[in-house]
## 1
Amino acid sequence: MGFLKKIFIVCISLFLSAYIFSIQFELLTIDVWCELEPPVREQDTDYPLSKKQAAENILNEARFIISGMIYGFDFSYVPFDKSRNVQEQFQLTPISEIPRGDKNLKIIYTEHRNRKLFTKVQYELEEYQIKRRSAWLSNAIPSATGRGEGNLFKSYSEKITSYEQAIKNAIRNLLKTQLFNKPRQIIGQALIEEAPQIFISAGSYISKLRVKLKIQEVTPYSVF
């Protein structure tokens, strides 16, 4: 009887582990906040922000993050090179995006605190999205972390700027470990691996995130 009980407990544990793993892949939940009294009032917005405007800001930010967690981005990066008088260039293009009004994207929790609206946003993935994200999360695809900044005194969209800069710096951090000479250009794809962190410090939005990276082409200066 004791042996059968142990087998039963092991089976239940395996079932629960598989269930939790499945839920983690079927649902993406992220924390997103929005200032209700931003330091700069933007045109055509209420001040303080109405609940409707704050929710719109939050859902737009969530769409950027979650689209980046499912589909990822194409990128082209030209590093700064003082000796060659080359200015840094970085282009980040979403491969695909969650559409506005997607029924699978929901705000499931809200809290007002310190003149901010804090939320949990959840997205239920379709089967093809689960497969895509699962393939990206393979251990064969390298990860890197980066930190980015956006100007708090410009607009709310600077939060997105901070995420984009964090992705660029994650690419730089990965390449530092792989390339001895500075390249002319790097082309590839990036996927946000997990929900980013973002906070305010010294007049800036500061974000930290972890990305999966596929480097598709590295162009050295020797070919020019």
Note: The beta strands are 27-35, 73-78, 89-94, 105-113, 116-124, 143-151, 185-192, 197-201, 204-219.
## 2
Amino acid sequence: MAEADFTSCFNCKYFLGNDLGSCRRFPTYQNRHANEWCGEWAMKIIPLMDAPQIEVKRGRPRVAK
């Protein structure tokens, strides 16, 4: 379960409903909105790619004659 990407109740397998629904995770069902997130499930973290290195030239620019 930890590798799943749960970012809201709507994506959770324990949520039943559309916008308003019920969380069926525990024996006592709770009313929830689809945009809520209980925080119990970890979000998948996608690593960022390394940014390209930019060459920085120091000093004054040469004046064209």
Note: The chain has a mean pLDDT of 76.
## 3
Amino acid sequence: MVQIGNHLKMNVAHSLRPRTRDFYAGLLKCKPVASPRDDLDLYEFDGGFILGLFFVDPAETLSEAQYQIGMWMELKVDDPIAWKARLLAFGVTPVEFPDPTRFFFAAPGGQVFRLAPRDGGL
């Protein structure tokens, strides 16, 4: 049996560090975790998942178009309608996808997320 771990790493352009901090620590209320490196921010989500953001030269990041065809992640929330409004007010970019039951968006840096209810459903 294989299990996916609870850590994920992404590269983000240096210039987006303040915006990503506003997004993950501010809007999403993820817990900042002490980092062993100056170029790395770590955020802990409910349930113990750790997201690591390495801040690099823009040439070392994926483009928004590449994120569109890359891995997408899911955020489970108690009230998807309220969260969609909060995310749009923050200024995320909606992402077109033929599933009208979910809201898809790009976070600062281009990473794509699907917003889903915490209490079930695919």
Note: The chain has two domains: 1-59, 62-122.
